[in-house]
Amino acid sequence: MASRGKFTIVLMILQTIxxxxxxxFVKYEKTDQADGQVPGIRNFYPMFKDVHVMIFIGFxxxxxxxxxxxxxxxxxxxxxxxxxxxxGTLVEGFFLHKFAQFSVSIVTLINADFAAAAVLISFxxxxxxxxxxxxxxxxxxxxxxYHLNIYIGTEYFKAADIxxxxxxxxxxxxxxxxxxxxxxxxxxxxxxxxxxxxxxxDIFSMIGTVFLWMFWPSxxxxxxxxxxxxxxxxxxxxxxxxCTVVSFALSSLVNKRGKIDxxxxxxxxxxxxxxxxxxxxxxxxxxxxxxxxALAGVVSVLxxxxxxxxxxxxxxxxxxxxxxxLHGMPGLVAAFVGIVATAFAKEDAYGHxxxxxxxxxxxxxxxxxxxxxxxxxxxxxxxxxxxLAIAIFGGLITGALLKPSFWxxxxxxxxxxxxxxxxxxxxxxxxxxxxxxxxxTGQVGPIEMDNNTKI
Amino acid sequence: MASRGKFTIVLMILQTIxxxxxxxFVKYEKTDQADGQVPGIRNFYPMFKDVHVMIFIGFxxxxxxxxxxxxxxxxxxxxxxxxxxxxGTLVEGFFLHKFAQFSVSIVTLINADFAAAAVLISFxxxxxxxxxxxxxxxxxxxxxxYHLNIYIGTEYFKAADIxxxxxxxxxxxxxxxxxxxxxxxxxxxxxxxxxxxxxxxDIFSMIGTVFLWMFWPSxxxxxxxxxxxxxxxxxxxxxxxxCTVVSFALSSLVNKRGKIDxxxxxxxxxxxxxxxxxxxxxxxxxxxxxxxxALAGVVSVLxxxxxxxxxxxxxxxxxxxxxxxLHGMPGLVAAFVGIVATAFAKEDAYGHxxxxxxxxxxxxxxxxxxxxxxxxxxxxxxxxxxxLAIAIFGGLITGALLKPSFWxxxxxxxxxxxxxxxxxxxxxxxxxxxxxxxxxTGQVGPIEMDNNTKI
Amino acid sequence: MASRGKFTIVLMILQTIxxxxxxxFVKYEKTDQADGQVPGIRNFYPMFKDVHVMIFIGFxxxxxxxxxxxxxxxxxxxxxxxxxxxxGTLVEGFFLHKFAQFSVSIVTLINADFAAAAVLISFxxxxxxxxxxxxxxxxxxxxxxYHLNIYIGTEYFKAADIxxxxxxxxxxxxxxxxxxxxxxxxxxxxxxxxxxxxxxxDIFSMIGTVFLWMFWPSxxxxxxxxxxxxxxxxxxxxxxxxCTVVSFALSSLVNKRGKIDxxxxxxxxxxxxxxxxxxxxxxxxxxxxxxxxALAGVVSVLxxxxxxxxxxxxxxxxxxxxxxxLHGMPGLVAAFVGIVATAFAKEDAYGHxxxxxxxxxxxxxxxxxxxxxxxxxxxxxxxxxxxLAIAIFGGLITGALLKPSFWxxxxxxxxxxxxxxxxxxxxxxxxxxxxxxxxxTGQVGPIEMDNNTKI
Lengths: 455, 455, 455
What we know:
- Chains A, B, C: Belongs to the ammonium transporter (TC 2.A.49) family. Rh subfamily.
- Chains A, B, C: It is a multi-pass membrane protein.
- Chains A, B, C: This is Ammonium transporter AmtB-like domain-containing protein.
- Chains A, B, C: The chain crosses the membrane at residues 7-26, 46-66, 78-96, 102-128, 135-154, 166-184, 196-216, 236-255, 267-284, 290-307, 328-345, 377-402.
- The structure is a homotrimer.
- Chain A is 67% helix and 1% strand.
- By secondary structure, chain A is an all-alpha fold.
- Chain A has a single domain (4-414), classed as Ammonium transporter fold (Orthogonal Bundle).
- In chain A, strands 1-2 form a two-stranded parallel sheet.
- The first copy, chain A, is globular, with a radius of gyration of 22 Å.
- The two termini of chain A are 31 Å apart.
- At the A-B interface, helix 7, helix 8, helix 9 and helix 11 of A face helix 1, strand 1, helix 2, helix 3 and helix 7 of B.
């Protein structure tokens, strides 16, 4: 049960800390151009906007499928995003600049959005089963581990993961799943009938799906360079197309009466964007992108249809949005594809872009080769292993820290319901009345007065 | 009645063919830049994204107005788009490169989106009256004829049609209408009460309308050059504004009680983007763009109000979304405007852009004039004539091919309803219960288990 | 009660006037580039599109929260936008070019969108309480005063207001509030129960909120130059993040049971974009942007919670969307921040951008300083004062002009209802039946026939 005050205090303390730390560490980028133009605006801002739309409209509306958790889905998505844009900026700077002052560029904004993506993927695993308090604290802890993992993966392994399928999708999914496992409560079963969608909430959800689908080429290409950026766009575009066709085909097949399931269309159609992410800027050829997308569709639909219910029943691992099927397993496919593509990367296929796609293979000053393709492939494998380890271990610890009743995890009918945290209009929820809420709105000043403000 | 298996098999066969053909024919573009940048990214990617949004959000949500066909509208829109992005890439390459290997550029992606637009316009004419099987096969056939028509129009007539009002809108509309006429079944009347909207489905539809409206300047300017691109943006922007004002004015006028009809606001307000499409990059002046837009609003509202019901009653031509009023007739207006603007195009008004706007008039190597303005105008007329002929004839043939019961055209209450193809949540549809569906969801494993995945 | 004909005649007369005036005054921009490219396309078009989305999706859907005014919110938003895009282009040209011919550039399109923003903010103050006739006439009058104020503020005071927080937000809000005060009618109380939201209308509203939130950095940076543009993006991005965190924190605090109010999440989270607008391109530092955003969240939530109900009760000032809390007071905060930041602006912090951020301080030809920082700060203060005066006085006059019954202001149950102006589907409104509407749709030909068009 959400109590008054605690939520406010936690957020105000966090925001105060952010302001102080920004005052100490964060400064503006200096322009080096004759015309005073900061090049980041021209080169990265258009891509940044697409990523921004994916984070706040894409993830936010994708999760509105729950019949009674629409406010929480799009609302807490916005709140967690707002927390991470600030905290992610700080933590990234701390790792990269060793607690010296640092400047923010447009790429910094993109990276803060990427960090938000990881947190929002974890949010999907526990959607409707956690309090806003738990979600905010989870975000604060997860971001530190997220950047620790990226620091290891980029500074030491120098892994290639242009679309962040390992650093963002695998990390966010398995951190969230481990977290979900620890905070699991039997009363989730009591809220089963609120765990589904209604007709129009599925259509709200498709707003998120389609924006994610359309802008995923920008997500995978946002920080790519040269013709690697071109390949990232083309590969992602075609991978998603193939994934969509296969998702429709399998969704119908796995249903006894041949019917298509909106859960698959809302989620599995996007798996192609994840699965191609690590190798998006590599020379995998358009036909390779189609195969990767098709494979991702198969893995994702079968995961939703068979694996998720099993996990829920056998190991009490409850995955509200099925992030294992959209981000987890397709992310592992991406990591595998990345290892293979890295192992076979040759100069004749890549030309000058071999150095930009695989910076770890070449000396940054002299430019001569310091790692073979095979060695780099091994480092790719080490990166996904490290990512899994930090994500799962971190998720378990975080779950243990946030399970105590102090963090006000919702119970029974509060689960999968906005009722715990949100003022509801007099109509309650679209599919049934809410007598108790009616009473509330009768008692309380605020909603009365806020209603007046709209007269 | 949709059967299990057939839909899956057809999609899997298609996807397999796409992968094989991509493997044989499609390769990456080679960069020619010192910095390895592929110029297409900077010059065309921002426009591509807007077109992409129009195809998948614009068309997808515009069609969600039907009270019980929301899943099918946005879902099949995504499926058909995904099929055409792949198939359209291949067929365009076959025509342009005579079955030699070809590379994909960002312009290729834009053209694949344009091809999807034509198919989705045809989809609008038969929305709710066709099976997914019929829609997929229709797309496969239509794309071949679509590119045949463009090949004739651009290679031989060298027509100017920067916004594709002839090649995309006229073709898509009349192909779809001819197709609709052939597959017409009397039992459409039995589903009349499901053919309308409910209050919130009209608002979902406005998401599509507004995104189409906002990004139409990008649609008409996407592949334009130099100051022709500037004119395409400005002309489309003002044409849409005038069309919107006139659509509101007439919508109220043609109703006995002076009320505005959402059908007109959702559709007729967009006719200005179609009607200015062919001449968008020509020197028609801003006031000319306003007149074209206003005219389009008149044609479209009157079409919805009087012509569509007549066609339905008299020649049994049923047009679910009224594509004749949004794409067909405004496209013919665009073709006519294009003929006139072409006939009066002079060097003093166009300057250097005369060669880029009317490539057919000049020798590509030497650059001297080989066609007079009048001659080019005649070729413009020939292009719209050819487009109508191929579209109508092709639509009739395609309808005949896909009418057999093998293709599972929906009947009676399956018409205008997601019930035939989609798993429905327990609430059935927003405006009434679905006892039979409740039974289904009670019987079937999949939805049970998928519900669990969301707990 | 809306009558048939009057609405049509007014719109057709306006559109005819627009066409004539465009014919006399508006011409194309001449390109000065070797490649014929109009530079505006590359430099301003990407920003223009984001602003365009904010105007038509952002404002349009933000206002759909009313349970029975969804058609009017997104529909009239589109109509008023379409009127202002044309009329705003003309009036701006008249002021800047003294009734000589002028050319339209991409910046002209951005400025027309900005003008639409001011009108749509005023629309928010009277949402559901005015006829479409009143709204159209209000827009026509408001735009003249809007550009008069900008002319004074930019030509004489040479004020810095890159995000238009004074020229757009303060002006639009207080014009609308003064207008609302004059047209106030007691029967607004009779429609109290229609003044709220239903569950899914709040989610529609969040579509508007999130798009406004995401693209606000583009709004504040659209016409900024050099590194000032970079600062406008970064400052707005972080200001919005801090504002969002604080809005959630306070929304929960001001409710007796600690519940979050969607009204605050839909609106107050955006106040940070307004409050940072005037100083967005100035050197306020990221930590300063966070403080401004946090302050805006406090002002906005407290305004919704306490001030708006008070204004409604004590001075009969009814503010449907609470524009005073989202645009008015945060705009005044922006003006104050702008005065302070201007007073302390020094060369060493700004470098070469001091001249572009504060053009009023330097001679345009020679470039030497003609105004001190303090003097410019005084002019900033004069600008906000003039803006308030013109907005309030103009709003009062406009309200008096449009209050007569000739303008068909809605009464009683027509208030906050689409019933007065729109054909409604047979289901009436989602939360209850509409017997009278059922009768109407039974009588009238048009809706019957339009239904047929969808069969």
